[in-house]
Amino acid sequence: MDIAKYDQQMQKAIVYLEKEFQGLQVGRATTGLVENINVETEYGIMKMNGIALITISDNSTIKIEPWDKGNAKHIANAIYEADLGVGVDNQWSFLFVRIPALTQERREQIVKQVKALWEETKANIRKIRQEAMNDTKQQLTTKTISEDQHKANEASVEDLTKKMNTKVDELVKNKSDEVMKV
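Below the sequence we write its predicted structure tokens.
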């Protein structure tokens, strides 16, 4: 059994978690907060980073310069609808997204989001683990591998799962600590 296939799938789950963490407001400006927001334009729904230049002006301000100035209103609406808890100043040729200081209540809400993402990622890893276990059991049933190889495969899958879960736990702890830091 090729364990690398399952390793790669679990890595994708972790990459997804890290990408979602970039979209969380943690009290400072980051392009990840807005770049993946879907914006409804005359041409259809597009990602923010596909229709505008996104830069950081300072620790609390993101500057968005739409390539088509007519999209400024659509971008402002999309940011508002994303409910990020930020202020949008539409200057028509560009927008400023102001990141307010986080209140304790908002920090706790963000930590809840982090924990929800943690549970989702853990569930994905469990699903991949189960798929790998079923695969090795199938191989044993069809007698393409021996009992010893089956046990070795199961041990490898368990080791991989523990390693990935530890990595996810570490990422979540670091993100939670970052959010709660005043």
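The domain at 3-21+103-180 is CATH 1.10.132.20 (Topoisomerase I; Chain A, domain 4).
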